[in-house]
Amino acid sequence: MTHMNSDQVFAAIEKIAATSSKNDKQAMVKQFLAFDTFKRALVAALDPLTTYGMTQVPGPIENAAPGANTFENAPVWDCLDKMAKRELTGNAARDEVQRLMTFLTPSSAELFKRIIRKDLRAGFSESTVNKAWKGLIPEFPYMRCALLKDAKLDSWTWGEGVISQEKADGMFMNVDHETGGVVRITSRQGSPFPLEAFGGFVDHVRALFPAGTQTHGEMLVLVDGVVAPREISNGILNRVAAGGGFEANEVPRFFAWDQIPLGVVAPKGKYEVGYRERIKALLLGLASGARTLPGIDPMIQHIPTRIVHSLEEALAHYRELLAQGKEGTIIKNGNAIWKDGTSKEQIKLKLEVDVDLKCVAIVGGRVGTKNEGRAGSLTCKSSCGQLQVDVTVKNEALRDSIDANPNDFIGRIFAVRANSIMRPSESNALHSLFLPRMVEASYRTDKTEADDLTRVEAQFASAVVA
Prior knowledge:
The chain is an alpha+beta fold and 466 residues long.
């Protein structure tokens, strides 16, 4: 075979998906990358810089005859290109996608849908592709926090001081300031944000951040001068990322905590300067740059930071912020280098509480997602009815069980782990939970009564004190 059409590409992806061995998957990806259409489909689906602005992909036109065309004789690539450039949006995009879904064979239509959804459902990622074809898919380095149990705290610089910082309740962003003055704002996954939506923020970047650097921090949104809760702030930022804008009473505020040279920003990259020196340089740069913005409230600030000299002091800072309703803290060793990957020299301290809630409904997976037509989450409720939250099904085995016998799960008690209680708002009259997830992939057989809101609040209060 010297050429692959889109039906054959889909068959190859399904073959890879059915293979459990990572090494075998990589070998098959490498084999199929010899075909241009396969390579193009992978890039279209996996490149984090390319998105299509559509979360729900329509199916074929109802009652239409099955399509008989592949990508080769349908304007699929042109449609994807226009959607990526936002030249084709809204109802016009939906109508064109539905027309093409009707025109294509079932296999090619499914491939088209998966590309738009950015999910090939084949069990491999961009790193697998890049091992087979170096640099084909852009990868974006990111330094993650480790767990407290994994850190060797005895070797940390407690005498000189360890850095304890507020865990901001917003959206992580990279801010690049190139030597030529070009500014870029990207998400953790590398998705770009439209600069025009951020107005004067770009001027603040040029004034406060040295050229040739990438700065890491958390973006929050002030609404009427007050920092909005995470769900509202991130909702606004997601709206902006999709091509919208900030309302007149909404202002972005970037809280910076690290800065590295752009030259080290690469997969497996490292910057050997210790964190104490990096944060010192960042703070001095912000202070110096702020003098060029007299009378202007900077859109960029440093993350609230404290120096602690023992784990007890670090935990005291953590409890102090929890008592203020904050998310928690991150502690960083003074000598910690920056590196792409998980660093055991920066630890996230974050509250987690397990509560027992009753399943009252099964929520189907969203249309156009891989769980469409299957159980997506369980609506779980407190015994008093004042707290309700949808909890994602933990794994595929549990999803299979729910699909096979849904009635068995209604009324059952599930242990749900969360990071905080969310109070009622204009959009939700009930209490909810932040970052809820199932503790186990099964319901409890030893309990038939859910916790009420009073007990849930008491458990969180006890966790803060503890």
